[in-house]
Amino acid sequence: MGISPETIEEVQKTANVYDVISDYLDLKRTGSSYSSLCPFHAEKTPSFFVSSDKNIWKCFGCGKGGDAIKFIMEYEGLSFTEAIIKLAEKYGIEIKYTDGTKDSAVLKGLFKVAEKISEFYFNQLKKSYEAKDYLLNKRNLSAEVIKQFQLGYCPENIEKLLEFCKKENISLEDLEKIGVLTKKDGKLRDIFSGRIIFPIRDIRGRVVAFGGRAIKENQNPKYINSPETQLYKKREVLYGLYEARDYIREAKTAILVEGYVDVLSLYQIGIKNVVAPLGTSLTKEHAKQIKKFANKVILMFDSDKAGKKAVISASKVFLSYDVDVFYARIEDGKDADQLAQGGYKLVQNTINNAKDIFLFLIDQLEKLNSENLQKNENLLKKRYKLINLYLELLAYVRNTAKRIVYHQALSEATGIPLEALSYDTVFEEKEDGDNLIEDKLSIREKIVLKSLLYHKDEILKYISDFSKISDSGYFLHLVDLIINQQLSEEEKNMIESFNVKHDLDVALETIQIMEKIHRKKSVISFL
């Protein structure tokens, strides 16, 4: 569903660059133009200029510039389509679509429903002593952060929700569409009953889903997230990004933690450039969103095995998008929330001590080098695993110069010649651009890709998160292109030329096998 050329043209003609940018920046008259400190890089003297006459803006410090649409895209981290919609709403321009407006009207209505349900949960929290006690006293969250993130509570009695919906003319069908209610054996079920509610917002601040946290000991599972809906694709949303984006842009750094309360605990002590993935491995879409605001990430995941595995997985994704990865190791088996209970200084000290992921691994190797490796088989194996992990991550570094520097650093730290420390880059640099090469794919990955071309809907009913079956950046990249119908003709022809079957049953069996193999991979205990 694309926006009509007429709507785009009307927005381009109507959107005044001074009018739009002055909503975000303090613009001062400078001759015939206006100036301000650039929001996209650090500076003390204004080099950001806006020309009302030409209806353009330009920063002579970082080189960025464009029209009102481009500013919204850069500042808000939106796509072109999202920026057009935002400006159309600002100027009261009717948005027309190339294939009708019905789908748009439905989505707009669902966003309103989700916002109203969020308000209902927020008001229910005020009435529940047990829920307030849990947040304020057991989790030590402030009233301010509860209000800002609009935390709520879903009452156990479903009639309260149904009564509210009747009053607000919200249909049960819409509640199902946004993932709040389900039907089982003909009976309505509130999936968040008796839980603390964390509204999940997209980059534009719209409620798209909810997370629910149990507050009673016998409630299982501990956390429940909304299912994927028309509004919500978990691979595309980071919790807290809407609230944190300005702080991330200012610091040029994003801090990644694991869960809702980790985000809130850091935010309330003053560390606000913090976000979390939502019950899924970090994805390409997540990395692309962060890349719009920052060129560096600090991974502050839990110190358990799952957290360490997540560090490796996230590092690969970010490195492939040329984002510098730092690791902030949390000691004593704690998580970010527990660390935050010690106060701002303790957390800031952990952040300040974060190390480039490659330098961290070199530190671990150098500690091993001081041991008597010849007499300790376990230490020898650990050294071997660390070197292999280093080379595995190195394969995801897109920037050639960075790869060379990190490669040399490993050689110097280990005393192993460069030629003996071989690795295969995930992203092969070709003369005709950054196309990825076919022979990086396994037979199983080829089966899945080719089958997706012919049986996409059936396969997506079985699996939505393909990072559960493969860590290959190339494979996940192609999967994403197929799902979003963005394959080039060349890429489509390449996949169709794979000498494998595209039978649905074979594909599902292959996915099961890949899932088992991926699950059995041992977590490297280097952290």
Keywords:
five-stranded mixed beta sheet, five-stranded antiparallel beta sheet, 48% helix, 527 residues, globular, alpha+beta
Describe this structure in words.
The chain is of the alpha+beta class and 527 residues long. Helices cover 48% and strands 12% of the residues. It contains 22 helices and 16 strands. It has helices spanning 5-14, 17-21, 68-76, 80-91, 102-127, 129-138, 143-148, 158-167, 172-177, 241-251, 260-268, 284-291, 305-320, 336-340, 344-352, 357-369, 377-394, 400-414, 443-462, 473-483, 489-496, 504-520; strands at residues 28-30, 33-36, 48-51, 56-59, 65-66, 152-154, 181-184, 187-190, 195-201, 207-214, 223-225, 253-256, 274-275, 296-299, 324-327, 355-356. The strands form 4 sheets. The protein has a 5-stranded antiparallel β-sheet with strand order 1-2-3-4-5. It is globular and about 75 Å long. The protein starts with a helix and ends in a 7-residue tail after the last helix. The model is unreliable at 428-439 and 521-527 (pLDDT under 50).
